[in-house]
Design brief:
Number of strands: 22
Length: 321
């Protein structure tokens, strides 16, 4: 009787322990450090898991753009019921390192990475009825892009004693480029205190401008993928500051123009050219006291009789009309 009671008690206790034992938990592991890959290359996003793979095993990779919450993720591929289903805009470039991923490896391969692939990737494993305490892994990927040729601009007055600002910025580049201004040529270098540049914003401030500030300035954008300047291929780059040269040229041109106009006003007007013949001109050989009248009958110029002249002659010339 005592032995039977002990056996029943042990059986009941064993059943209680079995019912209270938890099922195997799903655990996903991903790298703690962010990943990076050069643009155009293949990125491998490592993801491993531990669970008892069964008929209900499911794997999902999804993507979250930068600055968006996890709830805004959209799927890249599924693995369920023994089949792989790529989906979304990355479907043609996304695959698994091991397919099927039933050996504890769920690493994602993404070929020909684009700048738009930068963001957070989610590796999620589900395997009911296993309970998952950490069935989700997050990986941050940065696609490395060399800087593009920076665009430069200039503001301020380029005259002696004033200040000017040069700015440049690259539309592409990851990580974000830093900027450095260099002055080209062998001209005297301005004093260090008159040049202040910000490597992050790409701004160069020139204060208390002088003739030594004149020259060509080049902006160079640099990150770990390389550097670029504007314009590229060895052409003169950057912003050109011609202190006083343009103003001086315009002043000289204006002075010459005003002087020319004044001289032209002072010059006497010429009424007749050397080849012109005036209708009231005196014919050669005729006295100034002799008046000329027109003969309406024959269309010739005729000199009338003079009161003091003894001989009366006629001098006829063709009339110029």
């Amino acid at each position: 009787m005592a032995g039977l009671l002990g056996t029943s008690l042990c059986g009941a206790l064993l059943g209680l322990l079995c019912m209270s034992a938890p099922a195997l938990a799903v655990e996903v592991k991903v790298p703690a450090e962010p990943l990076s890959a050069p643009v155009g290359r293949t990125a491998e996003l490592t993801c491993t898991y531990s669970t008892s793979v069964g008929d209900n095993f499911a794997l999902e990779w999804s993507f979250v753009p930068p600055g968006k919450p996890i709830s805004a993720s959209h799927p890249i591929l599924y693995f369920t019921s023994g089949h792989l289903y790529p989906t979304g805009s990355k479907a043609n470039r996304a695959s698994l390192l091991q397919n099927p991923p039933t050996g504890g490896v769920a690493t994602l391969k993404l070929t020909d990475v684009h700048p738009s692939d930068t963001g957070t990737y989610l590796c999620q494993v589900n395997n009911p009825p296993d309970f998952y305490s950490n069935g989700l892994g997050l990986i941050n990927l940065t696609v490395l892009v060399p800087p593009s040729s920076p665009l430069c601009s200039q503001s301020g007055q380029t005259s002696v004693g004033s200040s000017a600002a040069l700015r440049c910025s690259s539309s592409e580049g990851a990580p974000r480029p830093v900027y450095h201004w260099v002055r080209l040529g062998s001209s005297p270098t301005p004093s260090p205190g008159s040049m202040v540049q910000d490597d992050v914003s790409g701004q160069l401030i020139l204060t208390n401008l002088s003739l030594t500030s004149s020259g060509t300035y080049r902006c160079v954008a640099t990150n770990q993928m390389g550097s670029a300047s504007y314009p590229s291929k060895g052409r003169v780059a950057g912003a050109v500051i011609g202190v006083l040269l343009g103003v001086l040229f315009l002043s000289v041109a204006a002075f010459c123009l005003l002087r020319f106009q004044r001289e032209r006003r002072k010059r006497p007007k010429e009424t007749y050219g050397g080849s012109e013949l005036r209708e009231d001109a005196i014919a050669p050989g005729m006295s100034e006291q002799t008046s000329v009248r027109a003969d309406s009958s024959n269309g010739l110029l005729e000199r009338p009789h003079s009161a003091s002249s003894v001989t009366t002659t006629k001098s006829k010339l063709p009339m110029v009309v």
